[in-house]
Design goal:
Layout: E1 4-7, H1 13-29, E2 37-42, H2 49-61, E3 67-71, H3 79-83, H4 91-95, E4 106-107, E5 113-116, H5 125-129, H6 132-144, E6 147-151, H7 160-165, E7 170-175, H8 182-194, E8 199-207, H9 214-223, H10 228-247
Parallel strand pairs: 1-8, 2-6, 2-7, 3-5, 3-6, 7-8
Antiparallel strand pairs: 4-5
Helix pairs in contact: 1-2, 8-9
């Protein structure tokens, strides 16, 4: 899947088209096998992964699919702030076997889009996410919904997202280019690969379109394993060669 560029406004016309393109790319990424469970993560806080999770879910739901958004960040939940609701009972309560599943699934403002809040913040989120009970949760909701999107903590801070990603069909990384350097992004990518997850691609979020010039081009090359300094040297030598050939 190619990188998708989202503007700083969450749901303007340009962003709606970007999310539709993202939905299409996801559909084409899984042709032989249906993608049901999808992990969304980032490298650090405030890169917009919760916003992406929410509007991606809404966009998929527009096609008539039943979509479940799960706030799987049991440390610092952000997803429910996008929906502007406060439900104390959620994922952690279910994993602890304190409530039934139907008690934590709620209808969002969008048709066909449902959500589960994180629930009470536990002292041991990593253990809960690695439990058999969480595996059973994923299996159950996968049978009830066409798509399950899990909004997870940033992988640059804690390992929770890697644990969840290892149990889901695929993962998408959300990156804010001007905030995250290529070394951190590459380290997060390697963590996901070590978790044996399929990485569908990267979403470049909060893009400043003035930034989409030489700086962005150099960032692209650095992120994908090319040395930025080497690239600049090559570009300088190329210009010098052209100038020399012109005078010759």
């Amino acid at each position: 899947m190619d990188s998708i560029q989202l503007s700083e406004k969450s749901w303007d016309l340009d962003s709606q088209e970007a999310f539709k393109a993202l939905r299409t790319n996801i559909e084409f990424s899984y042709i032989d096998k249906k993608l049901t469970t999808l992990t969304i993560t980032s490298c650090s806080p405030n890169e917009g992964k919760s916003t992406v999770s929410y509007y991606l879910g809404a966009t998929i739901a527009q096609n008539g699919s039943r979509v479940l958004l799960v706030d799987a960040d049991l440390r610092k939940p952000m997803l429910m702030k996008k929906i502007n609701v406060d439900n104390p009972k959620g994922l952690s309560n279910f994993i602890l076997n304190r409530v039934k599943l139907e008690q934590v699934i709620h209808q969002s403002p969008y048709e066909n889009l449902f959500y589960i809040s994180c629930g009470v913040k536990p002292p041991n989120p990593t253990e809960l996410l690695g439990s058999i009970r969480f595996n059973e949760f994923l299996e159950t909701v996968s049978q009830q919904f066409d798509t399950v999107i899990l909004d997870t903590p940033p992988l640059g801070n804690v390992i929770d997202a890697a644990i969840i990603a290892s149990k889901t069909d695929a993962t998408i990384m959300v990156i804010q280019p001007e905030k995250i350097n290529f070394k951190l992004a590459r380290a997060v990518k390697e963590q996901l690969e070590n978790a044996d997850t399929k990485i569908l691609g990267v979403i470049l979020n909060k893009m400043n379109y003035k930034y989409m010039n030489k700086r962005y081009y150099n960032y692209y090359h650095q992120y994908y394993g090319h040395d930025g300094k080497t690239y600049r040297n090559w570009l300088r030598e190329r210009k010098q060669t052209k100038r020399k050939n012109h005078y010759d």
